[in-house]
């Protein structure tokens, strides 16, 4: 089984590999994971008949997902479906009341947070905090919703006296990346991990000797082949919300934790700078 120590990781590990399946393989996996009657006694033939493919195709997909075969995939899914987090996500329907919508959106976000925490690489987390604390220049790259995460992190860092640059334009990313060196860090935010503007900037930053950190939803995405450090979020998608909404919350929480870890490396200075920056804007607040 895919290195399972925490059952909450199973759903995340499967979702991370889904974008790299063929359309047919993805449809088959959706059929398997969508079965409410899946149990340890469910036969390979029953699953293949339900999906409309051969037994060999099911085994092939199971191995592509990181399992030794169908039995291991079946066992992992049964174990996962018994966890508290597996039942948190449910699809939004036209008949939902406002209370239903609020509950479903919040529960999906809770699932993303719980499962992201279960797969977070703490060693990589610590290395990312060290790099960001020690860096001379901190470049944050992101487009669309990912740029909003970058701006939020940059704002927090400024509060404790750590300056950073946020770039959401492909030309500006490349120009800035071309000037980075071995004392600098580029943090690359990309939900898909395949956005060309982010991947190109990360590659150029790496070529110039800068260390690169990727924040993404997929462990096998193109950006992960370039980055020195990878921190993954995970979120279950829905037709209306997609994956990005819940994943954005998970990524914000990863970076909030990074912020605290960086501040902790020199807490006295961080507290001093925080007092200064808070004092600077105090007069702008309404009394």
TrEMBL record:
A Pfam match: SIS
Keywords: DNA-binding, Transcription, Transcription regulation
SUPFAM superfamilies documented for this protein: Homeodomain-like, SIS domain
Any one GO molecular-function label of the UniProt entry: carbohydrate derivative binding
Keyword check for Glycoprotein: no
CDD domains associated with the record: SIS_RpiR
Record GO biological process: carbohydrate derivative metabolic process
Boundaries of every SIS domain copy: 128-268
Superkingdom per UniProt: Bacteria
PROSITE patterns named among the record's database cross-references: HTH_RPIR, SIS
Family matches, as PANTHER family: GLUCOKINASE, HTH-TYPE TRANSCRIPTIONAL REGULATOR HEXR-RELATED
Protein name, per record: Transcriptional regulator, RpiR family
Lineage of origin: Bacteria, Pseudomonadati, Pseudomonadota, Alphaproteobacteria, Rhodobacterales
